[in-house]
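Here we describe the complex-level prediction in full. Unlike the single-chain runs in Section 2.1, the three entities below were treated as one system.
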Amino acid sequence: MTLQVIAFWALAVASVASGMAVFIVDSMARATFALLASLLSVGLAFLLIDLEYLGVLVILMMVMEMLIMAVFMIMYMMNPAGLMPMKMVHNDRAAMVIAAGVFVLLALGAFVTPWPRRRGRPPADVTGALGLSIMGPKMLVMMVIGVAILATMISTVVLATHRGRYDRYGDALEARRPVDPGGGRLAVRDDRDRHGEDRYGDHPGGAQQPHPDHGPGPSSPGHGHDPSHGHGH
Amino acid sequence: MHEVTPAWALIAFPIVLAALALLAATFDSVLTAVATGRPAPLKAMSDPLREVARLVVQQRRRTFMPDILLMRIGIFTLVVAAVLAGVVLPLGDRPVADLSVGIVWFNAMEVCVWGSLWLTGWGPNSVYPLTGGYRFLAQGLAYELPHMFALITAALGAGSLRIGDVVGAQRGLWFAVWMPVAFAVYLISAVAMAFWGPMNQAVGSDIAGGVRAELSGPDRLIFQAGRYALLAVAAAAAVPLFLGGGVGPVLPAWLWTALKTIAVLAVLVWAKHRLPAIRMDRFMEVSWMVLIPATLLQMLIVGIVVL
Amino acid sequence: MGAPGGLRMADRGPDRDGLKLDRLHVPMGPVLRDWPSGLVVDTTLQGDVIQQATVRTVSGSGDQRFWDEPWLSAMRGPHVTRGEAERRRAASHLDSLGRLLGVAGWLSAAAEARRLRDRVLAAASREEAVRDYMRFERRVRRSRLLRWMLRDLGVIEEACRLPGPGGGMSGDVATRLGRWLTETGAALTAMDDASRLEDGEGPRGPVEDRPAEKVLAVLPDLLVGAELAAARLIVASLDPDLDQLRSVHEAVHA
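The structure predicted for the assembly as a whole is:
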């Protein structure tokens, strides 16, 4: 029992401390993984009360979730290794007040709630009992939530992407293989316009279209392009 | 945990894991030597050990403004995840840790590799490792759902998430025989989770080694060891889940487990040399449009049979 | 915000999904595995999608044109047999194949291509070379996985056909791989031809036209919009021979 208590407090402290670290570190990557550490401590705490399935599931889901966040992080910030130190807090004072307020409210809630006394003993197979509960008395709720989450995910993706199956397989879905970006293509100018791919037109380095009959041959092609990109590093 | 794990298992487990990892590395270098036409390819058997010696003494290279802390966390997580994923697999009759949710545990530890590779790729502040890092996340998103469904199908067949029970349920017939789709999907995802060829684009040679491009010395050694250990664990998990575990005639359980594991491992290493790399921009669609429905259908069939 | 460590920070720009994302400036080359040595493609990346590309070369090429040598020498006058030239052509294509298969991550097939190349250059007999090559060709052509990975990449439309083996390069990466395989087979069978070499149709097209120049001129257009892995495959499938470029000295006198 005492070992359990020690473990609980260690995990509780680790969870809160790494939660605070999220706002102290100056790199987005470190903040992301500090948050992950905090969530993993919570997952491990589940194991202490013999909720093995839920605990391991929390670990599994949190790792996946935080790493998908990491993908977005790279999208918006491609300088690896926290090259650019970043402040992880904005609007410090108000944020502090709100955070403290919410903490007090939640802590108060934990203390004033009349927690029910334990009746009986936990079942031998907690995971099985959980499954029966989800698929038994709580089935309606779980089904509704499950479908709602799925519908939300699908509609978010549909709203976010501007390419649908008609763009990929043609207006009558007649193409055998989809047309996807990312493969690179050399075409004459108007063809590219038809595919709506002319978004690089305003950049100096891109889109210098070859004439169909003969390749454009500056005497020294290796040096013929935009010199401003000459030296990357 | 009702039964106490015997002390010998705690000692035997890391030794067995290391031996399997070394075996995979040895087989791989022999196959490489054969492919490149080296005279006396069997001499390549000592290559992995030579590489270990070289990396131990090699001086570390440093990149410009790296995040060493995150990189090291990533490298160590790879080994730790492989070991922790392995503890629920039976060596003979019983695993080191006989968790009641062993399958979910295995799954969770293997997902930690996502974090490991991402951190290792991010840390050095270099483009190719970073690219490798997010290539692996794309790979994770592609393989993970079919993989989970394959694991759950095995659990469904046994009616338990405990790996020991899954073995017990295969006394009559191996799951690989009557759940072939789940087994095939598991093998594909085993290759993918260990970022092993042909699913090795995260460490692909087209981006100069990807995640491990900037690793040198002991860092690289630990990373490589973790990778082979992960491959060994991924192969070993196929045995209790689909190939009847230690069940077999004449020989003792531990020997059957070892033989089957080595066979699966050999197939995975051999596949690397037979197939070109699979890119996720192509595989993703197949994975979600073909493999997920296929595994769901397999699960439905297994569910009906079990009922 | 300054530039930490004196490095240029990523700036932002629109991406193909209508978002405004970070872009990073990354030079590819001049030294990379299975990459035309000396070629540098300065790219602007968003994630691993190339948004802009410019091509330059690191000098040092132009005097020795190993792969075109039989044809150039025949033009200068000395007697060169067709068989000799075909041997060089086959080796050149096998060299390119080795690079493309290497980038495609099929290391054992790449190694086989290179071994064949070395043996063809080292005067292997026709029967032996053809027999071993047939086995290699069957193996590569049979791989549906490879075809699935290479098709629809780097598509060159017919109107933009570039100079290349067997009348020019068009289609996707898989098409160009197939063309190399066919041409290599034909070249190997003609390896004993003792007649005099009279045309200038080298392994990468007419040697006098310096096909590499045309390839490099359109390379940025091919690469824009491609992902990093696709870009590597596209470059490998064109495999420009940088020795064909005019050296600084030649360019001055041209």
